Amino acid sequence: MQQTAQRPRVDWPQRFNAVPKDIFHREDVYRLELERIFYGPEWHPIAHRAEVPKPGDFKTQYVGEASLLIVHGMDGELRVFMNSCPHRGTMLKTEARGSCDLIVCPYHRWNFTPQGELRGAPGTDDFPPDFRKEDFGLRRLRSEEVFGLLFVTFSAETAPLRNYLGDTIPYIGKVLGDDGRLTLLGYQKVIFDCNWKLYNDNEGYHGPLLHTAFQLLQFRSGEGTQFMTANAHKVNCTTLPPVKDTGVLKDFSIIEARDPRRPAQAAIVTLFPLAQMVKQLDVINVRHAHPLSPQRTEVHYTYFAHQDDDAALAGHRIRQASNLLGPSGFISLEDGAVFNRMQLGSATGGTTNYVKGARGPLSGACVLDKGDEAGNLVRWARYREVMGFDHG
Predict the structure, then answer these.
(1) CA 22 to chain centre
(2) Angle at the Cα of 263 (from 261 to 269), degrees rounded to 5?
(3) Which candidate, 201, 214, 298, 341, has a CA 20 to 30 Å from the CA of 191?
(4) pLDDT (tens digit, 9 = 90+) per residue, 203-243?
(5) Are the C-beta atoms of residues 335 and 329 closer than 8 Å to each other?
(6) Nearest-angstrom CA–CA distance, 367 and 167
(7) What is the pTM of this model?
C-alpha cells in the first residue's frame, strides 16, 4: 500500500476527555489512517462462511480503499485475495457475490483457479523466457476465522486473531448464534455523510434520548454490562425484559423474541477500528464499514438466520432485520441524520467532549455502566497511539 511521506501535525488537547474536531475533515489525517489502521496490524471482519457456502462462491469487500476478493476454494478453504489481476492490476470481480469455476480478468483473459493459482494466459509464447505461472498467482492476505466469521489483515505483524479479540470472543459467539452455524438472509447498504470515526463513535448514552421508538414502545433494558478490552474493543450486553403492547404498532409481533433456544438479550460488539456485530431480540446482524473519504462512510448490514431455524422463525428474523435495526429501521432511523449533523457540526473547530461516565483517563481494559460514553475514550487513546499523535 502507499506510504505517507510525513506525519501530519495534529494539536491533540491535553484534557483526557476531549478530541479535536479537525480530524474528522482532514485529508492528510485520512491518508495516514488508511496506512496505519486499515492497512496496518489490525484485524477486519469481511465475510461469514454463510455468505460463500459452496466451493467456487465468492464475495467482494473493501477494507479502507482496497478491494478484496473472498473465495471459497474447491478444497473447502476460504481465502482472501487482493481483487486485482497480478498482470496489469485490473479489478477482477465487480459483483458483490457470485460463483465461478475460474476467475477471469476481463482485460487480457488471464484466468485463475478459486485457489488463486494462475491457470492460463493467452500469448505465453511471447512472454519473457523466465516467466513462470507460479509467480503470478493472486496476491493472498492473512486471514483467520472465529465462529465462521472471516477476518483479514494486511500485516504480518498482527497478533493471532484470538489474541487480538480477547474477551470479546464469547460475546461474538452470542451474536452469531452461539456456534456460528448461520444462513444468509440478505443485505442492506447505506452511505452516511460522515467521517468513519463519527459513525463508529456511537454509544449507549444516546439510545433512549435520540430514538423515538424507544420512547413510544417503552423499551427498557434489564441487567447488563459494558466493558472495553485492552485493544479498544467494546462489548455491551443486556437482558431484555418482555415489552408490553403500547398500541403504537399495528403488528406487535415485530418486536417479540421468538427464538426458544436463546434468551431475549441485546449483545453489541464493536471492534476496533471499524466493525460491529449486533444481536437484538432475534436479529443477527454483522455490520461491515469502510471509509469512502474523510466525509463519507459506507456500511453493509448483513443479516443471518441460524441453520436450525424453521421457516417461521427465519421469516420472523427477516421481518425484524429489515424493520428494526437497518439504516431505516424504526429503532435506528435517526442515527443517519445525527451522523451527518455531527459531521457538519464538527466543521466549527474546537473539540468534541465525552462526559457521561468520564471520571478520569481511560486507556485500557475497564468495566463501565452500560449507558456511559466514556468507553469511547479507550478507543480514542488507542487511535492516538496508533496514529502517533502527541498531546499539543
Answers:
(1) 24
(2) 110
(3) 214
(4) 877 777 777 777 766 666 667 889 999 999 999 988 877 77
(5) no
(6) 12
(7) 0.94
DSSP-H helix ranges across the chain: 27-33, 161-165, 169-175, 196-199, 207-210, 212-216, 311-320, 333-345, 376-387
Q: Cell triple for residue 25?
A: 475533515
Residue 4 pLDDT > 60, yes or no? no
Rounded to whole angstroms, the Cα distance separating 244 from 98 reads 43
Q: Would you tell me how many other CB atoms lie within 10 Å of the CB of residue 390?
A: 9
The Cα–Cα gap between 168 and 262 comes to 19
- Cell triple for residue 170? 464469547
Phi, psi (deg, nearest 5) at residue 164: -65, -40
Q: What are the pLDDT digits (tens) for 128-186?
A: 999 999 999 999 999 999 999 999 999 999 999 999 999 999 999 999 999 999 999 99
CA atoms of 53 and 76, how far apart (whole Å)? 9
Quick count: other Cβ atoms within 10 Å of Cβ 207?
18
With the CA atoms of 158, 78, 147 and 253 taken in that order, what torsion angle do they form, in degrees rounded to the nearest 10?
130
pLDDT surpassing 70 at residue 2:
no
Buried b (16+ CB within 10 A) or exposed e, 137-151: bbeebebbebbbbbb
